[in-house]
Amino acid sequence: MTPFELAEPQSLKEAVALLDPDDASVRPIAGGTALMLMMKAAVFRPSRLVSLRRIEPQYAAIAAGAEGLRIGAMTTLSALEGSRDVRERTPVITRTLRTLSNVRVRNVATVGGALAHADPHMDLPPVLIALGATITTAARTGGRTLPLEQLFTGYYETVLERDELIAEVQVPAQGKQRAAYFKVTTGSADDWPALGVAVVLEADGPKVKSARVVASAATAMAMRLPAVEKVLAGATVDDKVLARAGDAAADEVDVIADVRGSAPYKRELLRVYVGRAVRQALQANGGQ
After folding, report:
1. What is the distance of C-alpha 215 from the center of its chain?
2. Which residues share a beta bridge with 179?
3. Angle between the 239-252 and 263-283 helix axes, to the nearest 10 degrees?
4. What is the pLDDT of residue 1?
5. What pTM does this model have?
6. CB 235 within 8 A of CB 203
């Protein structure tokens, strides 16, 4: 690796001030699980890294309230996995994290870093989008709050400016909504998925009142599937409805190929696993 400057600010405001909106070689670093691999492979050669490890502890905390969860961006994935509040209020997050990479990565990787990296194979973004999560950012201009589904713009691309950091993630109370995440891998359970499908439903028995369905890994970014949601909304779920939902999913998205599968293969996975994720969500009791 080439030499670089390491800055260790004591506050989020100071960290933002150390970033350079005009210099792509200046980057923030949280857990560093992805960034360090990029540096070792010489894909990225920083002139300065701004470490976020010493900023205020509130940004590594989880708070629960009537409106849902507030998750600091520096919260590690293992802390999120082990949180009683998360397990009781949004158990789909806890279940998802058990097979997100391995425990060594989860002990270091952070929620904000995972989202900002925008790897379409990550398991957490589709789940959070389906749950209706929002993010709050910090920037020299004061930051902004936006739905998580608006963060991603393409393959490893987001709307974040170079001097803008994710500060917090807000997850609405799940209540009696039913949630499921299906991770389809061609390797071990904790491998990168060939397809991820997250579903959150409001339902009365088998009748769906509303649905949020999100696909990832087979697509360039985690994205909602409005055509599938339209098929499900107001429908009483049976094999025919799920077949229509699967067909809508396969027709709706541009599928990408990679080492985990060809585009036609992933399209068929999507056609099948949308229905399976819906069934799994319906079988959940208030998300449990």
Report:
1. 11
2. 200
3. 140
4. 67
5. 0.95
6. no
